[in-house]
Design a protein that fits this description.
alpha+beta; 4 helices; 2,3-Dihydroxybiphenyl 1,2-Dioxygenase, domain 1; 11-stranded mixed sheet; about 40% strand
């Protein structure tokens, strides 16, 4: 039996066509939020890859926490990302689950040994994220994080709902 690779469920992510509309729905109709908004693009993310090759893509995303799990809404802002492909193929919906691992490098080696590749990834302010080609085996895309111990979140580009000021 394979030793457990995953240690925790960190994030559930949903791809949406219109982030602003999704934020209104989640917040106003379901009371989920507040949300921290970020732009990810070649000027904010280093080492961007798609299918294990250097590539550029961009998206807007919003983060909140429900219980101990982070929720992410992602709107692709170009047609090059796996999020844009997902919208074309499936429409809006659950895209990936980020899972904790004891050691990113060891976990990535295990997945590569099973024939998986990084279908998209990058490094944001020193924080590396990698989406793995686990759909056929696990039924979903697994995301792994490599977060340095000294990682400092640079803060959001905006918040929703906006803070009165």
């Amino acid at each position: 039996m394979q030793k457990a690779i995953f240690t925790d469920t960190l994030q559930v992510a949903i791809v949406v066509r219109d982030l602003n509309a999704a934020l209104r729905t989640y917040t106003e109709e379901y009371g989920i939020g507040p949300w921290l908004l970020y732009d990810f693009n070649p000027s904010t993310v280093d080492n961007m890859i798609i299918d294990d090759q250097p590539a550029e893509y961009s998206m807007r995303l919003a983060l909140t926490t429900i219980g101990s799990v982070q929720w992410e809404l992602i709107e692709p802002t170009d047609d090059r990302s796996i999020y844009a492909d997902f919208l074309k193929e499936h429409g809006e919906g659950l895209h990936h689950v980020a899972l904790g691992v004891s050691d990113y490098g060891e976990a990535l080696a295990v997945f590569r040994g099973k024939g998986h590749k990084i279908i998209q990834g990058g490094t944001w302010h020193g924080f590396t994220y990698s989406y793995l080609s686990t759909q056929a085996k696990l039924g979903f895309i697994a995301e792994l994080y490599d977060q340095p111990a000294d990682f400092v979140n640079p803060g959001p580009d905006a918040v929703y709902p906006p803070v009165a000021g």
